[in-house]
Amino acid sequence: MASSNIGRLGAGRTTLTCISSHPRRFLGTLALETDNDLVELETPIFITSETTIAAGELADGGLAVQVTSSSIVVVAEGQQLQHIPLQQTFPARSASIVDPYIAICTQNGRLLLYELTNHPHVHLKVFYGILG
Fold this sequence. Notes:
Blueprint: E1 2-9, E2 14-20, E3 28-33, E4 39-40, E5 52-58, E6 63-68, E7 71-76, E8 79-85, E9 92-98, E10 101-106, E11 111-117, E12 123-130
Antiparallel strand pairs: 1-2, 2-3, 3-4, 5-6, 6-7, 7-8, 9-10, 10-11, 11-12
């Protein structure tokens, strides 16, 4: 069984890890708390039932972001701040997180660009969408 660390998320306390038994088969995502020991979160704030395509940080490390094939999750201080469902007919196939942007390419070639904004509150908004 192989595992790969996707990224350190949530102020250095939570790590998202993908577990697979075969190099081409995905089994799941684990959210681990890393205070003193590696402990799986009892109440996951990230999506653990889907493939994690990208994980990273925004707001200079203040926010953790997870992109799955069907959604974006934004987490801060152990709480889920935002959940953005993506179009189910064309799931995300790749993503890149570069503060303050998240770029997502869907299976039909559409490019979605989200931008972090803090007016009136901290959240992601659609910045740009291009049809492929």
